[in-house]
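# nightly structure sweep
# worker-07 picked up a monomer target from the shared queue
# config: single-sequence mode, recycle default, output format = structure tokens
# input follows
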Amino acid sequence: CFGMAGNRTESRKWAKVAYDRKRTAVTCYNYALGFSSDNAAKYEELLEESLSFDPEYAASLRLLGELRMSAGISDGAELLERAAEALASSIRSRTANTRDCEQLEQLADRLGRDDLMELAEGRKALLIGSRRLFSEENLATGDLLQVTT
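# output follows
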């Protein structure tokens, strides 16, 4: 919340607290964000640690892939592909939010993957259009019974 509010100092402080309390893919990722501009080695180390907890954590895959692509390291593109596939999987399983769709759109554009762009755009349109009295995620799915009179 501090990070989204633009309070980098508090965000960095609480990311460190969470990281020290329990290391997970998410806490390593959040802590890494504080090093993105001033300590590339620590940033990369924490993103790698994040992936040691969850090798398919899309956020860490994306940032590590971008870092390595910009450094000319060959596995950067592979990491971006894995991030894109992880996001696509969450969209297909209907667990993705609008931000996930936007991140997949960016990755699909960078990777030239029109199939993933269509998937992200379609789901995003549904999510944006679902700002009504019910949520699509709460609807039951299955075979419909047809009643005839």
